[in-house]
Sequence to fold (381 residues):
Amino acid sequence: MAFASLTIALAACDNMANQAKLNPYELPYGSQLRWPVMPPPNTVARDQPLKAPPAPPITVALLERGKQRYDINCAPCHSRIGDGNGIIVQRGFPRPPSYYNETLRNASNQHFYDVITHGHGVMFSYADRVEAADRWAVVAYIRALQASAAATPADVPAGELSALQ
Amino acid sequence: MAIFPPQANVLMNAALLGTFAGGVLLLLSIWVVPVIGYNTEERFAPEQPIPFSHKHHVSGLGLDCRYCHTMVEKSSNAGMPSTAICMTCHSQIWTNAAMLAPDRQSLAENISIRWTRVYTLPDYVYFDHSIHVAKGVGCTTCHGPIGDMAMTWKAQPLHMSWCLSCHRDPAPHLRPREEVFNPHWRRTPSTPSGEELMAQYRINTKNLSDCGICHR
Fold:
């Protein structure tokens, strides 16, 4: 009797731990699908914009977001300062061009946005990792990096120069 | 004629001893067995299809957690990297390494790599990575020294008492938001106190240990 009730109790525990709901990466039992399961063609996820958002106005918040996303996704190859000598390049990845060369200084914002979206050369697409709005933030931060190369001590606000030294 | 045969004393003693031993075993099985490391799988690193090293990628190369776990800030699930994320670098580096063969096969056949789960929660627990990360709970608070693990092992037992210990008193476990993904962060004298961070993140402990917070 005690054994029977213990068995039922333990079985009940297991049923609660494995409920009839799907967890992330779980597929229905017996499903023929296999990961990666792609959305059906010509569909858009509910939280994704229908078309590429226009470039937002440049704000400090946008630049800070761009710096954060740049340091996560771009810096491993392009380096924190954008000269193209990141840690992965030092380990043998083909070196990307520096953001400070003439061609990339004159390239349009849209060019950077498109490279993030579609990739370029040996660089994979980052569309699945950097959301559309964040791509514009990263572009803004790359522009800030480029501008910083030509900066002089005179560009720094008077009170903050001592903090840099 | 005696009611009890001569061996009754022995039987009685054996029965008493057996009852006592059975009771001890029952208590052990309820209170001790579930919490020993062997059963919680603490410090246990399961075998993986590719011997991926966080130590190499995080501490050695300095990659951010979010380079691979892309969804951790906006989803309940931290997100396992797609084969494309591995291949972003490994299409050019270590392209012939034998240990990366499952990766190349995954890319060629378009079938995701099946990693072995290290942290498993029962279905009656609702857990969300994004809210913990947003409120200043660092990766290493639950995942241990993940940035220094060669093979990934489970750093916490995931007992309800462990969850509650933080939900009842979160302050000592909080850190500044910009340090959440730093695998080697340590509290310094200039770090804001846990109480200050609680106020900054507006963490209200009044409801934090309600059943419905985790069981919904």
Q: What stands out?
A: The interface with chain B takes residues 16-19, 21, 23-25, 34-36, 71-73, 76, 87-88, 91-94, 122-125, 128-129 of chain A (CB under 8 Å).
